Amino acid sequence: MHHSEFLFEILKKKKLKIKSSGKKVVYHDPCELGRGSGLYDQPRNLLYSFTELLPLNQEKETALCCGGSLGNLSMSPGERNKIQRATANILDAPDPDIIATACPMCKKSIGLYSGKPVKDIAELVAANLDFVNVPEKSKKKADKIPELLEI
Predict the structure, then answer these.
(1) S-S: 101 plus which of 53, 70, 71, 106, CB 3.0-4.6 Å?
(2) Under a CB-based contact definition with an 8 Å cutoff, are residues 110 and 118 in contact?
(3) Per-residue confidence of the chain (151 residues) as pLDDT tens digits?
(4) Residue 50 contacts by C-beta under 8 Å, 6 or more apart in sequence?
C-alpha cells in the first residue's frame, strides 16, 4: 500500500483531519505509482480534500516522466536533464503555489528545474493537519510543522 492510499483511507475513516491549505496545487503522477500500479485517483482525492487541485493536460496515463527514474540510466545526463526541464515547465505552466508528487525521485528531479516548491503529498498533509482536542503543549509543536517543512 502506498502512503497516499493509506492517508486517503484514514481520512475517509475520519481518523485524520486536514485543514484547507488555501494553496493551488498541481499533481505529478509518478511513473511507477501511476502506470506501474494504476494509482491515479487516491492521490488526487487526498489533495482535493484540502487544496485547490489544478488540472493538467498531461496527467494520469499521459503524464510525463520526471526524468529521474532508474529506468532512464541508459540515457545521457543531458537527455535526462531535457526531460526534467520539460516536465518542470509543464508543471509550472498553470502557476501553482506548489507541485505535489508521491515519489522522492520525482520530487528531486522536478525540483531541479521548477520555479515552484515541490513537495511529497505526505509533507503537504503533515503541514495541514488539523489538531483538534490536542493538548496545548502538542499544539505548539504541531504549529511548527509547516515551518520545518518549509511550506
Answers:
(1) 106
(2) yes
(3) 888 889 999 988 988 889 999 999 999 988 777 676 667 788 999 999 999 999 998 888 878 888 877 666 677 888 888 989 999 999 999 999 999 999 888 899 999 999 999 999 999 999 998 876 555 665 566 666 666 556 5
(4) 18, 19, 20, 21, 124, 125, 128
Give the closest residue to 28 by CA, choosing from 97, 95, 121: 121
pTM of the model: 0.83
Q: What is the grid cell recorded at 20?
A: 484547507
How far, in Å, CA of 111 to CA of 118, rounded? 6
Q: 92: helix, coil or strand?
A: helix
